[in-house]
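USER: Note each token:
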Amino acid sequence: MTDHVLTRVANGTGVITLDRPKALNSLSLPMVRRLTDILLAWRDDAGVAAVVLTSSSEKALCAGGDIRFFHEAGHATPMAGSALLEDFFTEEYALNYLIHFYPKPYIALMDGVVMGGGMGIAQGGPGTGLRIVTERTKMAMPEVNIGLFPDVGGSHFLSHAPGRLGNYLGLTGLTIGAADALYADLADVFVPGAQLGALHALVETTPGAQLADAIRRFGARFAADAGDSVLRAQRAAIDLHFGAGSVAAIMASLEGEDSAFAQKALGAMRQRSPLMMCVTHEMLVRGASMQVADCLRMERSLVRRNFEHGEVLEGVRALVIDKDNAPRWNPATLQEVKPEMVEAFFAPAWPAHAHPLRHLD
């Protein structure tokens, strides 16, 4: 499995290439461990001044975590299955933290699909991170569609998106393209797919210490080519509807508008897990006032609660395993979701001194 993560150093830049094309580079535990090993080694390597994350396929940078693994481990022998799940999420979130605070420029080429766990390894830290999108970019945090919640730091980067865009993206799970990613502050630079060859040549010929600035200058000429942002055009409506105080209020607000945009959002929400939409809404409220480490610790506890409940296992069964697209959500309707059900997800799963991510600053 470690063969799915390829590395090389070019002119002071460490290049990581994800190479699991048949699975759209979905992250396995060995891949998470390999990425962590690489980044820790390069962090202290004076010969590496910047890191570039890319893919061997234009179809995807990374489609997320390996959800088939979630289903298999969740139904495996209790001890073995739960141990693998515990390791995966603890180590994935620790990797997200490492990337967020990486001390060297961390440049992610988000060409093709970048969703869920893919966002976790692409949303680099402020100041040093550089996120590149193309016209092929298909970005989403679609976890509520499988009975999970937007994790891998989503409680932080979604809650800090402008206005109520984070609520819109987290609760609908809908996909956006390059222009919307730039507008939502989830990307920095647009480069047309036809220019990626020149971009890769720039990586090869530019000293690592100068690479981020060189890419910004390179991408500036194409800024107008990203197209128009739907989110920008719909911003007032998004802030109005998704600024409501609860999931029920948001959906009621959307029901009062007959625009295609509002009805698409409403239709998506009607398919999602009612419970996990409510958990996601509460998570984003809390995440807005929390630091990255605390957000990841909160998410890690939420994952434990989710697998105890079983919502994600049912979601993956319906959408990926049996493909009947008929998840039996528990509760089945939004009206059945009680405040105490949501609150139970936020009850600490461990004492603070025993939390698996207690070492994060």
